[in-house]
Structures are given as structure tokens and as C-alpha cells.
Amino acid sequence: MIRILIVDNHPIVRTGLELFFNSKPDLKVVGKLGSGIEIFEFVRRHEVDVIISEIDLPELNGITALRAIKKENKSVNVLMFSSQPEEIYAISTLKAGASGYLNKTADVDTIEAAVRKIHGGEISLSDKMDKHLRYEDTKKSRSRMFKKLSTREVEVLKLLSIGRKNKEIAEELDINEKTVSTYKARLFKKLNVTNIVDLIHQAKHHNLT
């Protein structure tokens, strides 16, 4: 049984979600609250697995309440369910401790899936937001990889990737062959590879060439 607490300042939202969840054999709404300040006393007195909370709440906003709740109850998973735009608030709520974010335009099946997902220990976001975060993670990964390599190492890597030999690279960069070999050894180490084929593959995978 997944025990759910609904926190929203609109009675119709609380009642609608309660009716829907209680129609499922393994879901149960154990409480409905209209403000953020009420959450603390409720979770101290009742067993709660998932909190579904709006951001815009009277007395104490949902993000502030979220941070405080997670300090006291790390095992409680929180799904922020708000009319606020996800591209602005989803990341900040995840950083504050939420396990998911859904806009109130979501249908009931999506809400149910999100509850089950975060109860299972996963993060739940819309497909659009999930793709955005994956893209940002990829950009950060590439950025970190670039920072690991010096300007000269990147130059050598680019020339290696188009099939240049050590001697040709030395001539093009006006350095000696021994120095080129040194740069290659550094590239192998920094990109964690042992041969030129894997080196070039790694470079292309991280868009370094």
C-alpha cells in the first residue's frame, strides 16, 4: 500500500485526487491539507510514503516546506504538482529534495505513474523535462572533458582523428615528434584508453573533434 498525503490550497484538487487514488487497490490517501505549515505535524503523527504538493501554498510555500520535510523525513518522497512552469521550477524543486515534478495539465494516469515511480526510488519528470536534463548533463560532460585537455592536446587529438601521423602532426604544429608522442600519451591517460582507435572513438563520442 502506498500512503499518499495531498497538499493543495484548492479543495477540488484535493478531493479529485483523493477519489482517483482511493479507487486503486494499492493506493490510499491518508490525508489532505490546504497549507504547507500543516505538513510537519501531519507527518509526525501519520505514516506517509508520498506527498503530492503544490508550490503556491498559504503560510509556507511548497519548496520551503519541502526542504524542511526532507531534513526530518528522508524516506518520504515528494512529488511537486503545480501550475507553475516546469522549465523554471522543476530543477529547483529537485535540488530542494523533490523526487518529481508535474505540471497540473498532466492527466490522472500520468500522476499515478509518477507516484508509483517516485515511491520506487526513481525521479519522475515529464518527457520534455527529462530530455532537457539529459541534454544538459551531456553538455556538462563534454565541458568537463574539454577542461581536462590543454589547447595543444586538443590540437593533437583533432589531427590524430583525421589520420595524421606523428611526423605530420609535428610538422603542422611546428614541434618535434617526441613532443607529439608525449601529447599522445597524455591523451591516452586523460581519456582512459590504450590505443589510437579507442582514443578517436572517445573523442568523437564526446564531440571533441
UniProtKB/TrEMBL annotation:
Domain Response regulatory per the UniProt entry, residue ranges: 3-119
Organism lineage string: Bacteria, Pseudomonadati, Bacteroidota, Flavobacteriia, Flavobacteriales
The organism of origin for this protein: Winogradskyella flava
Keyword Phosphoprotein: yes
GO BP annotation list: phosphorelay signal transduction system; regulation of DNA-templated transcription
Sequence ranges assigned to domain HTH luxR-type in this UniProt record: 142-207
Keywords in alphabetical order: DNA-binding, Phosphoprotein
CDD domains, per database record: LuxR_C_like (cd06170), REC_NarL-like (cd17535)
One term of GO molecular function: DNA binding
Highest taxon of the lineage: Bacteria
Protein name as catalogued: Response regulator transcription factor
